[in-house]
Design brief:
With 343 residues, this protein is α/β, with parallel strands linked by helices. The chain contains 12 helices and 12 strands. It is elongated and about 80 Å long. Keywords: DNA-binding, Transcription, Transcription regulation.
Length: 343
């Protein structure tokens, strides 16, 4: 919401709003109470708004995040909050289920809160490019935490594609030749990059990919109520029934991999002696799994710092800007589930 839109909604002039915020005696008490009441409903604080009216900045960064907050995203949010706070900025959260309609509504809500810029934390739905493009065209700084083909925008991201390639190469260096990957049902760039990295690793190792070893969850609607743990369990049961079956499984996420470990235990499949399991994220539970999980560590502190620093530069600098893309490498954390180390 612009300052013009705000005063229109309040039904007062910009001068009257300024006088209310500065406790001027020239404002009628009824008007003052009405304005302050409406500002409270809009979640504005008088001191912050007075500063914003003067500087045209609120020192607030909006986060466009997924409605289903998973362990990896919680960590990202925490690190963004810490990085922003250290620079004197606040965070406003907006949640979306990832659909274009929900993203559009979330963007409107964040703009109504007069954020200075927006960071997209979600899953990279290509269908949502028009919504993101509208942010850029409005002049509001926008940063995506994942690459979106076809969108000319600032991007700070962990190189997931390279990470999954490195997971495959790690497994091949330890003797595996028949590997599978377990994927969610999303058509997001997050999921595509994982599969692309997996395929690249197979190719670089000079192996032939068995397409049936790419195990995908069924439709998004069908899995809407399932957690990644449950999804991993069900995908693993499908993989375990294959004949021949993969000797190693690369999992979409650590949460999904934890479900795979549980399925292995329930089905009498020994990890890692009969099948190796690796994940992605290095969330806190990975090291405490029944079989400690080999995974790729996402450097979320570095990601958040780079994103916040870039956002503040965009907010504070005027004039035309050339979009930048900053790729941050993940690093492998070797534990027992891949069979490379023993207890």
């Amino acid at each position: 919401m612009t300052q013009h839109e705000l005063v229109r909604r309040l039904g007062v002039s910009r001068g009257t709003l300024h006088r209310v915020l500065t406790d001027s005696p020239l404002v009628k008490e009824a008007t003052r109470e009405k304005v302050l009441s409406e500002l409270k409903k809009l979640n504005y604080t008088p001191n912050a708004l007075a500063r914003a009216l003067k500087t045209r900045k609120t020192q607030t960064i909006g986060i466009l995040g997924p409605s289903e907050i998973k362990a990896a995203n919680i960590n990202k949010l925490n690190e963004i909050y810490v990085a922003a706070r250290a620079k004197g900025y606040r965070i406003e959260l907006g949640y979306s289920d990832g659909s274009p309609e929900a993203d559009e509504a979330c963007i409107r809500e964040l703009k109504a809160r007069m954020v200075d810029g927006i960071i997209a934390l979600g899953r990279g739905m290509v269908d949502n490019i028009p919504q993101y493009q509208s942010i850029i065209e409005s002049g509001t700084p926008f940063i995506s935490l994942y690459p979106i083909p076809g969108l000319n925008a600032d991007c700070v991201y962990v190189d997931t594609q390279k990470a999954f390639m490195e997971l495959v190469l790690h497994l091949t260096h330890n003797g595996h030749r028949e590997m599978g990957i377990l994927l969610d049902s999303s058509v997001s760039q997050y999921t595509k990059n994982r599969e692309l990295g997996f395929r690249a690793g197979i190719e670089q190792a000079g192996l032939t990919l068995c397409e049936s070893f790419i195990v995908r969850a069924r439709s998004t609607e069908e899995n809407a109520e399932r957690s990644d743990y449950q999804l991993g369990y069900e995908l693993a049961e499908r993989a375990f029934k294959m004949n021949p079956r993969p000797t190693a499984l690369v999992c979409f996420s650590d949460e999904l991999a934890i479900g795979v470990l549980r399925a292995a235990e329930q089905n009498g499949v020994s990890v890692p002696s009969q099948i190796a399991i690796v994940g992605y994220d290095d969330f806190e539970g990975a090291k405490f799994a029944r079989v400690p999980l080999t995974t790729m560590h996402q450097p979320n502190e570095v990601l958040a710092q780079e994103a916040v620093d870039l956002m503040i530069r965009r907010i504070e600098q005027s004039g035309p800007k050339t979009s930048v893309s900053i790729a941050i490498p993940a690093s492998i954390v070797v534990r027992e589930s891949c069979g490379c180390i023993t207890k």
